Amino acid sequence: MPEPMTPVPTPQTQPFWDGAARDKLMLQRSIQSGRYFFYPRGFVPGHVNETYEWVEASGHGRLASYIINRRPLPGYENESPIIALVELDEGPRMMTNIVDVEPIPENLRIGARVAVEFRRRGEVNLPFFKLVGES
Amino acid sequence: MTSMHGGDIVVVGAAETELGALPDVSVLELHGRAGVAAVRDAGLDLGDVDGVATAGPLAMEVSHYLGVTPRWLDGTMAGGGSFMMLVRHAAAAIAAGAATTVLITHGESGRSRVGVPRWVPNPNSLGGQFEQPFGSFAPYSSFTVPARAFLHERGMGPRDLAEVVVAQREWAIPNPKASRRRPTTVEDVLAAEMIADPFTKDMCCVVTDGGGALVLTTQERARDLASVDRLVHVLGSGESAEAPLVSQMEELGSFHAFRRASAEAFATAGLEHDDIDHLMCYDAFAHLPLYMLEDLGFVGRGESGKFIAEGHTRPGGQLPMNTNGGGLSYTHTGMYGMFAIQEAVRQLRGEATVQVPDVKVSFVQGVGMYFATAGSLILSNRV
Question: Which pTM value belongs to this model?
């Protein structure tokens, strides 16, 4: 049976996946500008004179866009079909699945608040997101 | 002094192979057959070609397969819109004297998969870590994901996607080479099988085998060729790129690389939107012409859906668009860009199956690797 893909970290992305293993969503931030960036790199993209730090993100954001995939590839039949883009409160955007909701557009308002929930797949914890009440 | 833009560089040969299901033809043979046909169309022989550019196979695989000895090669791989960039690069190379006659080939066994390397998942890549684990692998589950943000921001919806399909089908119905030719309606398109909500099957491109090729040289050299009466001039071009991951595009409701590439094409051609008679917009999915009409500046923000629904891009409309039927109805081998350029060349030569009257200037917009790369061309049948 085909399995869904499990990420294999590179040395540059390892801190992100190490954080995920502890249920922490880790992002990089420029120390000079305060700007967050994602995906992980070993320097600040676009700025040779800046340096970065790893910081724990809030794990909160909003639903920015999504499809509901009616043709899952082999291995994904039991995964959430909601392939979504989430904009984190810190700025960066991530691909994810929205979980624990019936996959129909009526339930998935653009702009809805979401929160990260890590779930185990193979050797890593993957960042999925759930809808949360407005607060 | 030969210039890259302004018309000194010309397309002197253009040809497509058969399209559809070609289970007896390998990828390299598709490149070869397209290349032979384009060189023949130019009134040249393969010995006259000294530059080869392609995307997919390596440029030297194609040059050797064809029996061409190159002194200039370009294998810029920017996805399905690579060919817009390759025309631009060839124009620069010819203007600089690095090549005299450049052959650009495309061939893909997208449907029959003959001679195609097997795709190997790479969970160590950026996509393999940050997108594919969530089931976003195939074009229909990646390229489509930003579309709902685009529609939502503008108060648009699935009907606007369906209108794109209906408008382009009108061009495909009379075209015997087109894959989808059945008349359709917005209701039919919306009722088709749901693939990646909001995208139904008809809002996704066809999947075919086929090839195409172009020959470029200088206007000066073209004077001696049999194709001299059918020259298509490169007036302007542009290219740009954004993120290799669709999740990382700068703004979900606008692809800034379209804006940058098209602005450079207009600037280098010295033309304005009103000068454009014909538009080709690479349409792997129905949202792309909506993005392009707005990002290229042919309509204002939020006006793309209405513009198409009102019929302005259909036969007889003020801005005929995707006049072969596009990737949605004509053909889509995997890297459709070559076919968008071929249709622009045919329209400018007056040789299109569904010919638009009096086309003088055509704008061709490419996209590649989902929302990663953009290439723009402005072509004309006069200088």
Answer: 0.97
